[in-house]
């Protein structure tokens, strides 16, 4: 539960933007929407945000990795929860403009010191990180989910949780989502479940 009114207000503002942009995307041709995809806020949504926030706070998960920040909606949820457990967030994002927007929002609500942004290719960034991470949120181009999972390798703490977004929506992601679920469930060191929350999330937990 978000108790800081500044954080709650920032999330409300971003959710209002998301609603406006969803209406705009519904009005324009699909090809135009795809061409302009980097203009739009593509958030995990409030249901998934609340769940991840609760997981971090209740589990005391201090070392958090975000793979795909977009404009910082999920980063807000992660950073607020990290503050509650005296943790930190490492956030990977390709686009400098999105990082700048996320940093500005985090600074406005007093959470800038909880997030370390790394700009550039997510796969290369994961490879360079050491971990171990207690929670990982994967929410980037869907064909990169399995390569991200592979590169996490020994960078997960015992009992670590991976949350993968967009497992049920949009429908054009169905093949990549199914392939990711097969891959994570084929691992011998993780338990995994699909939850119909938000756009659908696969939650996987590394054996302790």
Mean pLDDT, as a whole number? 95
Spell out the helices and strands N to C: HHHEHEHEHEHEHEE
Q: Roughly how many Å apart are the termini?
A: 27 Å
Largest pleated sheet? 7 strands, mixed
How are the strands of the largest sheet arranged? 3-2-1-4-5-7-6
Give the helix tally: 8
Question: Could you characterize the architecture of this molecule?
Answer:
The chain is an alpha/beta fold and 208 residues long. Helix content is 46%, strand content 21%. It has eight helices and seven strands; from the N terminus they run H-H-H-E-H-E-H-E-H-E-H-E-H-E-E. The protein has helices at residues 5-27, 30-35, 46-59, 73-84, 96-108, 122-128, 145-152, 174-186, and strands at residues 63-67, 88-93, 115-119, 133-138, 156-164, 190-195, 201-206. A seven-stranded mixed sheet has the order 3-2-1-4-5-7-6, sandwiched between helices. Helix 3 packs parallel to helix 4 (73-84). The chain is globular and about 45 Å long. The mean pLDDT is 95.
Quick recap of the structure?
This protein has 8 helices and 7 strands, in the order H-H-H-E-H-E-H-E-H-E-H-E-H-E-E. The protein has 208 residues and is of the alpha/beta class.
Ordered list of secondary-structure elements with their pairings:
Blueprint (H helix, E strand, L loop, with lengths): L4 H23 L2 H6 L10 H14 L3 E5 L5 H12 L3 E6 L2 H13 L6 E5 L2 H7 L4 E6 L6 H8 L3 E9 L9 H13 L3 E6 L5 E6 L2
Parallel strand pairs: 1-2, 1-4, 2-3, 4-5
Antiparallel strand pairs: 5-7, 6-7
Helix pairs in contact: 1-4, 3-4, 6-7
